[in-house]
Amino acid sequence: MDSSARSGAGGTGGYTSTRVWIVAGVAVAGVIVFVEAARRSRRWLRGRSEVPPDFGAFCYRFEIAPEPQPPPPAARQLLSGLTFAASDNFEIEGYVAGFGNPDWKRTHKAATRTAVPVTMLQKQGGTYVGSTVMDELGFGVSGGNLHNGTPINPASPSLFPGGSCSGSAVAVSAQLVDFALGTDTTGDVRIPACFCGVLCFKSSHGVVSTLGTIANSQSLDTIGWFARDPSVLHRVGDVLLPAATGGLTQTRQLFFADDCFQLLKVPNEKTINVIENAIQTLPGYQPPKHINIGEYISSHVPSLKDFREPTVMMLEGMSALKALSTVMLLLQRYEFKTNHEDWVSTVKPKLGLDISTRVLQAVNSKSDNIKSLYIVRNELRAALKNLLKDTGILVLPTTAGYPLKRNAKQRLSPEFEDRMSAFVGIATLSGCCQAVIPLGSHNDHPISVSLLAAHGSDKFLLRNVLYMFSSIKEQVVLASKLVTVPVINRDADFGAAELLKEKGNSAFKGRKWSKAVEFYSDAIKLNDTNATYYCNRAAAYLELGRYKQAEADCEQALLLDKKNVKAYLRRGIAREAVLNHQEALQDIRHALALEPQNKAGLLAERRLQKKLR
Question: Where is the signal peptide (predicted)?
Fold first, then answer.
């Protein structure tokens, strides 16, 4: 091996150039903040059309041969002939793990031993070929890196690859390796898997050793891996997972988190229906159940109530998911501070703008009420075990949002980060295992679903992914060919429609919201030109937590009546509930322009302005 590789000097695969650093500010803890990377990235996109070598996935490349295949009669090594990489927080003997930051690498010595997961994979024939780019210090969701650059997303080159383990996801998606490792703290393997269109598996907390990885938050850090082929994903699991973590059982039960799917701007035909149709063709699955996972968590995790935001505009279930995300981030900050505050204060590392914000939030965080964070974690794990038991699988979206464009000038907004963390907190805080399965794209954006099983049910979940994958891919192809044709009723009976509207109003006042939806829907069948019918149905959908339907009804109402104040307000509520705060504020302001003293609108405007600060 050459000396530059052994010392960890890597650069950006031949595209290293003289950098002019621009200091944006010096924070309280001594973190120096730089903003040049985003500008350099935009210049690169404007000036080059070709993809950089290795898609910019690697910090540095070198090969470590696996252990030799034992002679017969020994079994063939499970990973013989396969190559893999690992993110830049896995230690390799003789090299310095950079943790995504050159100041970290500069202030640490070469590792004296290799990370346990890497060693286990090498013993089974895997060939290690290099360390991959990651967000600095394991923070961040975009996948960008101020120092090493942002890897190119092979699935969508104009979009960010997702982070923090962006390089590992890109290396797999670009077919540079057969599989790759990363660590998952707050979605660090699940988010890039979704954005890059590859499979991934996040193991149960504590089931796979993290010895030899650099900790971000040890109560949340888990080992994860990416692959294109479900059989490779499964074989890696066979190597890393202990034998006692479960297998494929005879009867399995899927639970669809309908409230989470309501947050997506993707039709159910491309998500829920794909999975439901796939299991119908396979033996061993009971009829699926549809649940509101947010409400379930709210009623089974009592300690979560202390972390909810005081708002009347968010349903109980959504409030619980938001509170989970809050607890997850508080716990991450506390443990990162415990692990690295001294280093941050002493070294004053050069960090990108978004990363520096997270680091400062961590090192300036308070340690009040820390025990309550661990109590929430324990209650959530027990609640999910009670729901899923040994044979249940929770189906939910991987993220509630799309990746940002690489040439976007704005910083990562709180709204975007909220959408990224809306669902990952369920598996992160509970420590449960989770698999990500790509489902193609919608409007040129990648989509995926996640399957979550109880803590310790890793092999059970992996075998189900392998079992279902072919059927799921068949259904993805069929779903991509579906065209929905709207039915238009030309023979409207206006008098009967008004009567049905009144029945809907009575059902709504009686809190029978599903029945109200039925009456309003029947009214619309008879007269589809009345904005009030759509607006009233939207109100019922909001009470049911069916935000996509509510937003769609408001849009139809506004097409029919551009000055419908209630339609603007209710669409704003629906968009706020799914974390589209900027669009929600625009709707509320439209309503206030028409009706300046509307009390609900004024309250909503103040609340949304606070969220967008």
Answer: none
Whether 362 is in a domain gets the answer yes
pTM score of the predicted model: 0.79
Same domain, 107 and 201: yes
Q: Which two tokens stand for residue 492?
A: 């409207």
Other C-beta atoms closer than 10 Å to the C-beta of 302 total: 12
Domain count, the chain: 2
d(CA 73, CA 571): 67
With contact defined as beta carbons under 8 Å apart, do 120 and 240 qualify? yes
Which residues make Cβ contacts (< 8 Å) with residue 426, sequence separation at least 6? 293, 297, 321, 324, 380, 384, 394, 396, 432, 452
In terms of average pLDDT, the best of 38-47, 201-210, 506-515 is 201-210
Containing domain of residue 64, as a range? 32-481
- Cα–Cα dist 596/603, whole Å: 12
Q: Which long-range contacts (CB under 8 A, 24 or more apart) does 327-331 make?
A: 327/373, 327/376, 327/377, 327/425, 327/429, 328/186, 328/220, 328/421, 328/424, 328/425, 328/428, 328/429, 329/186, 329/421, 330/365, 330/373, 331/217, 331/219, 331/220, 331/373, 331/374, 331/377, 331/429
Count other C-beta atoms under 10 Å from residue 450's C-beta.
26
